[in-house]
Amino acid sequence: MDVSRYVDDRPEDGVFRVNRAIFTDEAVFARELERIFEGGWVFLGIESQAENPHDFFTTTMGRVPVLVQRDGEGTLRAFVNSCPHKGARLAQTRAGNARLHVCPYHSWSFDSAGRSKAIKSQRAGCYSAAFEQTDHGLAALPRFETYRGFLFGSLAADVPPLADYLGEAAKLLDLVADQSAEGLELVPGQVTFTYEANWKLQLENCSDAYHFTSAHPSYIRVLERRQQEMSADVVASVWENSDYWKEEAEGVAGGSYSFASGHVLNWGIFGITPAIPLYESAGALAERHGEGKRDWMFNMRNLTIFPNLQIAENASSQLRVIRPVAPGLTEMRTWCIAPKGESDAARRQRIRQYEDFFNPTGMATPDDTVSYENCQIGYSGTVEPWLQGYSRGMTATVPGGNRFSELIGMTPERSVLADAQLCDETLFHSYYRAWAQRMAGGEEA
Amino acid sequence: MSALLTRAEAEDLLYREALLIDTQRFAEWLELFTPDVEFWMPAWRDETTTTEDPDRELSLIYYKGRRNLEDRVMRLTSGLSTASSPLPRVVHQVTNVMVLDADEAAARVSAAFTCHRFDVRMNRTDCFFGRYEYRLAPCEGAWRIACKKITLLNDTIPTVVDINAI
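^ inputs. structure came back:
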């Protein structure tokens, strides 16, 4: 595939453009599934989703159903969730506990290490010697690794080790994992929603500081009303206690970091405020990790680990898994991610802020997803196929990190230090450079 | 209002609530709730159970206090929310109304609902369905909604579900 048809990346000319077809073309989408979601590292879930012996959860990598299973000795493995007999989906639920999975179609069974336990009426089956010598266990994912409780798999064996793939962005996962000595967990209650637009719109929006005051004025008006009243009845939010997103704010407000492999962060300074559920641990976290790292845990952070994991820590803390279904259809599975062991009051505050801001039944996300749908409709207009949304920050982006990334010893590929008005768009370049690299691939590169 | 809530009175209140939402008479709709109303739509924990403790588990919507519903109405009608402009057309069917128990201070009522929503923006029709559980309380000479729990059975949300479609 000639990726220059889709991504016009000419830094020497100050040009970065993305072709609308990247969001609509069926052939592009098919290749994305093959090359990106079924051809490299993909986020599967977190360890606490299968915490105890024989626990499991299911997910997908592109089109492929996946079973992540802990065996009786505590080892986690990941398999294609498909019976080797006729291919039927084996585990039927999102999560559960099973010493044995029995296929509902012909009763082939598998233990929690994925080994074949029994083939119904095997002796009477008049099988050939060749069949008897075949392994009837579940097909393991070619690669499966964990980093700080974050589980990743790859359907291609020929990928770098996970640590290399995550690179310096791993330090941003540390900021999530280190919020409690006990680790992290997903708050019970999963929320799934779909939107009728391309998966990369979610990729971009999470990293898009530019849209906040434009797409969310109704939410901002609610915040202003609450700020004036400060009544105990209303859902308190960190947003009304922060200036970082306000267009009239001055000084360094945050910025962006880009990493190899397409990982990006946009961030803003919130400060150590009681509006953040982590506030009760502010002292302990500074003691354990130093003030610099502690302060980072209190920054607004929207992290993407390419291609399908996003962790947004702003109004609350959300873990999102992006699943492309069709060029114009995406499924989002979302959870409230939280440090284990936080107080009841902090947990309640985290949950309330989450529902109000992040849920598709809340007051902010719908104005994003509906905007994605408006984009998807607009992409059909190909009179001028090249989009102009990748240009803010072109003269602000610099190689390497800055005084803020130094606080956690992190060296990104590029960084932008921004006031509230800059709203960098060069961090998207990282997505599309990784995208282009993966899509071009081997012989056609 | 009679001393003990009758099913006819419960039906009147629930049907009226549906009509007010369907016809976008949100100010009147808000008046049906007590100031300290608990408005709750749990999330699903797994395939078969919803979350039960709003303080420890996630809900799709959880508010304590009518004040928060006023915020939702304000946002919905502000003209500042892309997702709500124009407002979708909705019609609720409320059925299977039963008074579960009743005394002079309160009554518990259950019902089933479907809500058909036509999203004019996307030219798309969706249907949401589930169960209601109400706690009604007498307030200023009328039965008011002190608690409304919505169990949404089809919880894969197509882009957005706001308070007018449940």
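Chain B has a mean pLDDT of 96. Chain B touches chain A through 44 residues (CB under 8 Å).
thumbs up if we can close this ticket
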